Amino acid sequence: MADERENLTYPLFGQAIRELAQTIADDGYRPDIVLSIARGGLFVAGGLGYALDVKNLHVMNVEFYTGVGTTLDMPVVLPPVPNVVDLSEKKVLIADDVADTGKTIELVRDFCEGHVADVRSAVIYEKPQSLVKCEYVWKHTDRWINFPWSVEPPVVTREGQVLDS
């Protein structure tokens, strides 16, 4: 059915994070830093940070989706941009909620490459069309995903959210 969706609840999210963290731990990967792709990746990074006992969390703000199924031509890094010196020679785990097109994770991975000791990515969901095949995936799907943090409309709607640094 074309309009079937993945429905991630908060309890299922907790299970997904624990299972994803266990997969990473079982692989022997011990990241020094979890680099979150905001906004959806913030939840994933926080959960993985606790589960993998990583306190060094960084955030990279990237805009790509402008609505349900609508995107910019290319993802754009929004300020503030992390300082690559902070990532230097570290093992970095990129965390996001979904690898849909893969363009956002590809942008962040390209940002890290050449500056870090090792970079890998972890997502709750990966779609078949993703340009990037993440090292750690909880579930593969071709459906639209209803995340518990974005299924309800905002309490307030604000214009001009991008801040200049």
TrEMBL record:
Pfam families named in the record: Pribosyltran (PF00156)
Domain of life: Bacteria
Alphabetized UniProt keyword annotations: Glycosyltransferase, Transferase
InterPro entries: PRTase-like (IPR029057), PRTase_dom (IPR000836)
Domain Phosphoribosyltransferase: 11-152
Keyword Transmembrane: no
Gene Ontology terms for molecular function: glycosyltransferase activity
Record-linked PANTHER family: HYPOXANTHINE PHOSPHORIBOSYLTRANSFERASE (PTHR43363), HYPOXANTHINE-GUANINE PHOSPHORIBOSYLTRANSFERASE (PTHR43363:SF1)
Protein name: Phosphoribosyltransferase
Protein species of origin: Streptomyces thermolineatus
